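**User:** Everyone, produce a chain:

**Assistant:**
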Amino acid sequence: MKTSDGFSLSSESEISFETQLDIPATAKYKYGARLQTSDSFLRFPSPLMSSLCTDDNPAAFLVNQAVKCTRRINLEQCEEIEALGMAYYSSPKILRVPGLRTKAEIPITVQSILIQSLNKTLTRLEDSVVLNQTLVEAGDVKICTNVVLEVKYSLTYTEAGEIAQAGLALLLGTVSGPVVPLEQKFEIHFIQQNTKPIPLSGNPGYVVGLPLAAGFQPQKGSGIIQTMNRFGQLTILRSTAEQDCLAVEGIRTPVLFGYDMQSGCKLRLPKAITCQLAVQKVKSLLKGQGFPDYVAPFGNSQAQDVLDWVPVRFISQASHMKDSCQLPMALVIEVKWTKYGSLLNPQAKIVNVTASLLSSSFPETNSGNERTVLLSTAVAFVDASAPAEAGFRARPTINARLPFNFFFPFV
């Protein structure tokens, strides 16, 4: 629609239609997706083929990382290398959701700046003004100041997969020497909005009485997903005075490190229920909702270190009765752990977890119109560490030859 002044206007329906096209309703970051910025993506330098830093590595959503890499720099050109400057890490603006650029840019807020001198002393700056690297000449000595040594990103996200805040902590230092291999450290951590960090179950080894850290891997190549409730990551049935499984369905007891536990309840099944439906119901009661696939070897294991986590090995044991349908009756969890590290301060490390599902034949009905099934769960911790034996050094052997006339004239 055109006005008399020659300007063109759009109708309300056209504006809303264009807005819906530009801003998808389902736009959100997914696990592992690279974080987009106003011009490209958030760069997270990392060592790839060697220890040298690669600046084109993108930061991935919900992937916590901590890496070290080196740069071979010419001190004369330190002011020209962008990756050494503070602005290279603080200037990008992260998109709140991927593909959405209008009014959705999250600036990176500099939260703290530490200055490290040549003698390794640290000084915290009160303001967060951007400092540029500067080449300084003091006689015959040349140094480059305000060089970035450590970068720590702290990103806050929402349940909808949106970036809410972005924080940055920097360590700046001074570099001297004509050609130096400079080591830099980079970290990035994601924190969910309106939540508190999960307390650890040990650092590093497990502490007796604290819950086991466990989770599952939604897809190959992804990290471990854990519930925010640390007492609900690995659980068993909870025993009550009524001993009714359905009355306490969903209420579980956490598995605590070092505590052997056993619990059970009664399940009454109607006469009309089939064995296949009963098997599904019993399995959901024994395992609970979201039984984990992995258990953390240490109390402070990181979710991104998937290869370090211990997979839960499932074993199904049926009775010798040749029935067409076997009903699970018990779930037995065996946790093997070992003492790791120094003899003076050994740390508890989990090395194997086995979950055995014990089944039996489908029970017959009672005198009434129902079947009564006794369900039980048990946890056993087994110390698999070899006994420590005190070692003694072998007595030294003297391999010395004396001259033939050493004892002359006595011999």
